[in-house]
Amino acid sequence: MVERVDNGTEVLLALIKVISDRCASRESAMLPTMHRAARHFHKTHRFNGSLCKQGLARNSSQFPACTRHETLPVTPTVPRIVPHLAAPDLSCAQLLGHVRDVSQRLQHNGMLKISLGFSDNNSQYLQQLIRSLHQHHGHQLPITHSATCGWFWDVRPSTTDFQTANHRARSETMEEFPWHTDCSYEDLPPRYFALQVLQHDRYGGGTLSVMNVERLSEQLSPTTRASLMRPEYRITIPAEFIKEPTKRHILGSLLLADEQGRSSMMRFREDLLTPLTERASRALDELKHALQHVEAQLHSTVHLTAADLPERSVILIDNRRWLHARNDVKDPGRHLRRVRWDAIPFPGVLN
């Protein structure tokens, strides 16, 4: 059971127990009483899209097994929240109900936070969860990061010990990382990525920001959206992520419409892009302006600080529906672990 509940919560729990005991013989007659009790509790103990401020502690170990609740309100102009699940122990990664919740939240929201109630320095939870998503919900297994690095990549500052020999990835620095999607240079970019927090930034840096692509695209002109959907960009593969020595770039588009015709999916990392036509160049300029525009960011962006994503947090993100960025890292001990999976075609790619 949940610990640290207030008096109002205790009253409601006691009332529900009494009602439940009687419902076996008088179920239909007691339903109105249950409804009135629920309405009264809702009025006096509001959740407001976050953890119940009247009693539920933030520590995930205090939640019952594999529970879900809502938290992390987005900016006031974005009427949505980041769903939040608790995984008190490793077995949650293989429980069908928990795995189904993860799949549904990713499909609906494109983003999900999970709080682990146990130490997991080897990322066993993520390994088992992704295998379960593969087995039960059709997700493709993770892609390798490079020719020498497998499923997992350690996102932490390093000056000498690089994960790809002689090449330092941007994620291995303490510098800010502007708006991008992961693996924009892949023929089949992964649909999802996850970051497990092994050590959050203890000095206030390394804030993860995410921007909704559909809302961003609403800031663009129809002409620009159409241009971004044409395969008129050369996308360079970073040296640290080259898998085939003879393949150094791909040709492709940057924006993609969903089944409803909404411009809701993108591949983007500015420093890797070369527009191949004048219209492609103009469209890229407008996109960069929109990314820097304050109104566009207020309209579509949420910022997740170390307080939102402390140690033992996992954030899962739809890599096509959300751009992400981070500010500069202040803690040299900051350590995240990344995995990318469900690589599927991004239409508009020319080999």
From TrEMBL:
Pfam families from the UniProt entry: TauD (PF02668)
Range of residues in the leader sequence: none
One GO MF term: oxidoreductase activity
Keywords of the record: Oxidoreductase
Keyword Oxidoreductase in record: yes
Source organism superkingdom: Eukaryota
InterPro entries: TauD-like_sf, TauD/TfdA-like
Positions of the TauD/TfdA-like domain: 155-339
Name of the molecule in the record: TauD/TfdA-like domain-containing protein
